[in-house]
């Protein structure tokens, strides 16, 4: 009976291994299975991604992908809309506007379907920002007005203020300065009433920009200084970059170009730090204009080219037009009229395409100057006419007095508006009291109906719960059976790995760090003692099989056994031959040479043969290298070829012996694995590792650990004994991972010669 149970366990383990392999488990955490019970966890992933959105794009996208895939698995449209919105926001921050538009639209469609008005409001706002960034001002205005309407319905004061500010930006961009000032004063009153300092900062910046466009530099600087003070107090670095550009523009208008350049330099520094490419390009283009005024044409041209390159990269049409115009003007001042004409025409064509009359007007003025300098009267006159026609249509001189009086008008009406607000609030209070009475009556009636409904549902629920409990018992029994089988598989895998006491005999001064992601592992280590020509050889290999968990474990069993067989083959003369043999046998075992469907899995591996008496290591690798830590600053192989230095410190050098760039397993054009022979010195250290340690996400910003940090860790712990090193590596990994999930199997072998 005992024998039959043992056979049954083996059969269950084998069937489970093949079943999990057949569904091709993935390494990406985003592809793990989620259920409705994980709703809170999925929401947490999306919120964590949102926290990284503006500062760490890799981590933000990592969590957004998890959120999207998980929401789709459990068919939760509310969470899916938020995941789409997060991805749109991330792509907007990295200036990938086409991708941002794609995910913004998907977010809006799902938000409308689920009637999530707050997310719709955010989505309209992001759509406006994207359209503004690519110069589509008409569509930007439409989207910001959509947000204003939905924010008013929600009584969301913060969103209303943001919509006002963004609408004012669009009006400034299309030359509607009067409308911009009016919108900003509406926003200012609301922000002051609600004591909203963040949005008051934005309003002050908007007023500063509007007064600048009206050529009222004193008022402009007053509001911009207020805006910058708020931005500094609230540590709003992203906004500081834009305000610094605005202040530089004012001083440029005042012909104080050295001061303007100092503000542009600060703006460039802060926008590079924040990854704000659009403002970075604007600051460089504007700085170029000040340099032109100071007759520093070469540096001005360089900055224009940088601005054009960035604007083309982020597809910011208005910025492209402005930068081309600046470059044209620079060539004009250098009397290179042909180049000046070429770039002025390019600037004009972009301005026409995006319907930017102010930019188009500037281009005709510039072309008129260029053709006059070339004595081309006909073209000069033609562009002069176009310049005059546009000037008449956008000339604001007749409106300046009216606009300048807007602030006085708003101040004068402030008391009247306050009284009207108080009256409206009193009326609202009376209506509210009446409404409360009605609600109490209706609530009582509703509670009676609800009580009857609850009693009916309770009876039905009790019946359903009994059925669910029966099903849960079946699921628990099956889960326990599966888990027992996987745990039994772990025992099988552990049985083939070299025991610790035997490792100490074969490798007297060494450590093995082995941390499976799941119960069983796709990594395996192979440590055997063999004899060659009467000399003892320590054969050491560390492999990373495709996948982790059960599929990886199955592959590791095959790899280990084939590798062990290779040591018994007479034709095997070193690690390179052993890997060729492993590759050939695995191809045959998995039927990878057949034309029909075959398994494409395999492994990466590093294989060393160490002869302690000669202090010599023979190495071959499939994708995985060998690292050697030595005090020798000129380490060479047996043929005299220098080995590449990975990194170093004052005492030690970390060398990397390259692996052959192909895996063990399916490869279309396989080549023999290269063997390296290296003579070592006493005290030198060898390190073999898989990619799990370096690929682990963690740290303060949720980024990968990476090989550079691993090399620094090895160098910093070089003087410790190997058991201490193992502890250092384990602690470093756990501290970096923190609360995040381990994404892969982790293995490192360290050996001292």
Looking at CATH, the homologous superfamily of the domain at 497-752 is PPM-type phosphatase domain
CATH architecture name of the domain at 497-752 = 4-Layer Sandwich
* CATH class category label of the domain at 497-752: Alpha Beta
**Looking at the structure, what is the overall shape?**
globular
| Ends apart, CA distance between termini | 51 Å
Q: Sketch the major β-sheet.
A: 6 strands, antiparallel
**Residues in helix, %:** 55-70%
Please report which band the strand proportion falls in: under 5%, 5-15%, 15-25%, 25-35%, 35-45% or over 45%. Answer: 5-15%
Number of helices: 27
CATH topology of the domain at 497-752: Phosphatase 2c, domain 1
Strand order of the largest sheet: 1-14-11-6-8-7
Strands, total number:
14
Provide structural commentary.
This protein is an alpha+beta fold. Among the domains are: 414-482, no CATH class; 497-752, PPM-type phosphatase domain (Phosphatase 2c, domain 1). The strands form three sheets. Strands 1-14-11-6-8-7 form a six-stranded antiparallel sheet. Strands 2, 3, 4, 5, 9 and 10 form a six-stranded antiparallel sheet that branches. Helix 10 packs parallel to helix 12. The longest helix is centred in the middle third of the chain and has 83 residues, at 414-496. Residues 1-30 and 396-426 have low confidence and may be disordered.
